[in-house]
Design a protein that fits this description.
The protein has 5 helices and 10 strands, in the order ααββββαβββαββαβ. It has helices at 2-21, 30-36, 83-94, 134-140, 171-176; strands spanning 45-49, 58-61, 67-70, 74-77, 104-109, 114-118, 124-126, 154-160, 163-169, 190-193. Strands 7-6-10-8-9 form a 5-stranded mixed beta sheet, covered by helices on one side. The radius of gyration is 22 Å and the shape is elongated.
């Protein structure tokens, strides 16, 4: 009996050791690439700049209906798309209107609330004025509690259409330069930093 128990303990310890030796995941998988990008929402303030026609430059807030009203092209849907998507559409829309159809879209502010919990120095609610990444949210909360935090398994908890989704991120890989894709948060996301596993 004692031999069986010792074998079970050895197998458990081997499993944990194997888990610790597992190499960190590479960049975010393709299925999360779109989710990781910044998505525009009603209330976001955008700067629309025309390098070839600066007199058309404007700074506007996306209306509640998700639209902007731009000179020469009228109303354009901006919400629920990335800044790059909107920029591409505007370049197409202005290509026939201007000699230089170049347009740039910059997010000036994007107010929303997110929550940071777990092994950080100042857990709680933060209200940034622009879209931020999971790593930036942790920094806003005082940074990782180095004595406790496990930055390799940070969890973003998101409520989407009454469904709770969890995405696990290796923020240590981002800090080390082994991952390059930032993960942008949405309103009311919860960023949870777990504690390191310890046998003691």
């Amino acid at each position: 009996m004692k031999t069986v128990i010792l074998r079970i303990i050895a197998l458990v310890l081997a499993a944990f050791a194997g888990g610790c030796a597992t190499p960190p995941p590479p960049d975010l998988p393709q299925s999360l690439q779109r989710e990781a990008e910044q998505i525009l929402h009603a209330g976001d303030v955008l700067k629309i700049a025309f390098p070839g026609a600066p007199n058309l430059d404007s700074t506007q807030q996306i209306r509640r209906d998700g639209k902007l009203n731009l000179p020469m092209v009228g109303e354009v849907v901006a919400a629920d798309r990335t800044p790059a998507d909107l920029q591409t559409e505007l370049r197409g829309a202005y290509s026939k209107q201007l000699l230089s159809g170049d347009v740039t879209v910059t997010v000036v502010s994007s107010p929303f609330t997110v929550f940071v919990a777990g092994a950080v120095l100042r857990p709680g609610k933060i209200a940034p004025e622009r879209a931020i990444t999971a790593l930036e949210a942790v920094m806003e909360a005082g940074g990782f509690d180095n004595a406790k935090a496990n930055p390799r398994a940070v969890v973003v908890i998101r409520n989407e259409r009454d469904t709770i989704r969890r995405v696990t991120l290796d923020l240590q890989a981002l800090l080390d330069g082994r991952q390059s894709t930032p993960f942008y948060l949405k309103a009311y996301d919860i960023v949870y930093v777990p504690e390191k596993f310890s046998f003691f």
